Amino acid sequence: MAVGFRIHSRKRAVADEWIKRARALPLANISDVMSRMASGGATLRPMHAAGGMAGPALTVKTRPGDNLMVHKALDMAVAGDVIVVDAAGDLSNAIFGEMMLAQAARRGVAGIVIHGAIRDAAAIRANPLPVFAAGVTHRGPYKDGPGEINGPIAIGGMVIQPGDLVLGDDDGVLAVAVDDCRAVIEAAETKQAAETKQMAAIEAGTLDRSWVDASLRRLGCEMPEV
Q: In which residues is Mg(2+) bound (predicted)?
């Protein structure tokens, strides 16, 4: 058994319904209804022109500085996939660049997440295909392996299984387990509806802010009576 250097088949993936509904929601609201306990880390930032990302994970774990298995993932990807690469967050060598971006676009990939570095940043920044990464360097990668495709990975403590829903917007990257998608998306939609009403109250000047002082008093803050 070649542990650490093998390719698995993806057994299942998030349903299209949840991908579509998640696209309409701010990532922050989805994060909130997950108890603010899931995060890909603050280093994963959007590198592309603009726009959000949603799709099932095609996971890759690779040795830092090596992108052989990322190339194989590009050949395996189907339209709508999000290729998520755990390269250990190392920024010494770029794992992804302009040529691979063109291949990803040709395959109809919905997004790329690199827990590591990219290069050809100007070309990626000018392109609408979502790319999230931890940094930029001009130094290129090696292509020797090892690595694994369609196994569990973890980025910043966030575990991602093949087929999980992977989301991205200007606030970063978030993964939702396949079995949690219905509950999470429905709860986030409820939260979004409540926030829409709250924003309307702010604009109308009718929002009740008494909770601020009530919280301070409950926590024992010394303050003047108004």
A: 120
Phi and psi torsions of 70, nearest 5°: -70, -40
- Answer yes or no: is 32 a known binding residue: no
Residue with tokens 């369609």: 150
Four-CA torsion 183, 188, 193, 195, nearest 10 degrees: 150
Residue 98 is labelled as binding a ligand: yes
Residue 197 CB-half CA count within 13 A: 6
142 CB-near residues (< 8 Å, 6+ apart): 65, 66, 67, 68, 93
CATH for the stretch 6-187: 3.50.30.40
Is 120 assigned to a binding site?
yes
Whether 169 and 53 have beta carbons less than 8 Å apart is answered as: yes
Tell me: is residue 119 an annotated ligand-binding position: yes
Q: Does the annotation place 66 within a ligand binding site?
A: no
Instruction: Give CA angle at 134 (132, 136), nearest 5°.
Output: 95
For the full predicted model, state whether its pTM sits above 0.85.
yes
Distance between CA atoms of 80 and 72, rounded to whole angstroms? 17
Digit-coded pLDDT (tens) for 11-22:
999 999 999 999
What is the b/e burial string over 60-97, where b = at least 16 CB atoms within 10 angstroms of the residue's CB? bbbbbbbbbbbbebbebbeebbbbbbbbebbbebbbbb
